[in-house]
Amino acid sequence: MLSAKDGEKPRLSHICVAGAASGAAQVWVVCPLELIKIKLQMQTEVKRTSSSRYRGTIDCIRKIYKTSGSRGLFHGITPLLLRDTPGFVMYFASYEILLDLLSQRKSRADVGPLATVFAGGLAGMISWFSTFPFDVIKSRMQADGNNGIFQYRGAVDCFLKSYKTSGLRGLFSGLGPTLLRAFPTNAVIFSVYNFVSNLFIERSITLNADVD
């Protein structure tokens, strides 16, 4: 079973499996939304009179579907899968490992707020750093063709051309601000998650005690 009793530490292997599954599953929802977001953000490069210009989210979806079908809405999904499947494993696994290093916990309730802040923030940074080149490739593929000219034939072609023009450093372009965003964002996510989880655990313990 991939579960642990209330309050107990989950097994690392279970966390990795759950992380990989959740990362791969959410990609199918995220990919079309990230594609539309990037297409709309790249509007400044498209002339106002161009037929490829989008008037909004719905118009963007309609035009992508009209020219490429439903498959077009999942353009860039390969690097996104390569980013998020291992990325979610790194995210949740590193969080649990860091919690063990930063606190002497025997259960979830033993974790202090400061340990949660640092473990959550660092886990977010580790996750992004470990898979960032795939995010760069994904973004370049999804932005490709916005001016009517396509540069890349696929994920591998995008990687080879990016590496040829910018080297390894180019595959980490934008990493700095991403890491600066990752720490506070994920520190807040895990802090709130643990706080609410502990409230439910305490409530469950109290209710069980009242029943006994």
TrEMBL record:
Q: Does the keyword Disulfide bond apply?
A: no
> Which cellular component, as a GO term, is one annotated location?
mitochondrial membrane
Pfam families under this entry? Answer: Mito_carr
Return the PROSITE patterns for the record: SOLCAR
- Coiled coil (UniProt feature): none
State the source organism's domain of life: Eukaryota
Q: From the Swiss-Prot or TrEMBL record, what is one GO molecular function term?
A: transmembrane transporter activity
The protein's UniProt keywords, in alphabetical order, are: Membrane, Mitochondrion, Repeat, Transmembrane, Transmembrane helix, Transport
Q: Does the keyword 4Fe-4S apply?
A: no
How does the protein's chain sit in the membrane according to the entry?
Answer: Multi-pass membrane protein
Q: Which family does it belong to?
A: Belongs to the mitochondrial carrier (TC 2.A.29) family.
This chain's protein is named Uncharacterized protein
Q: Which organism is it from?
A: Desmophyllum pertusum
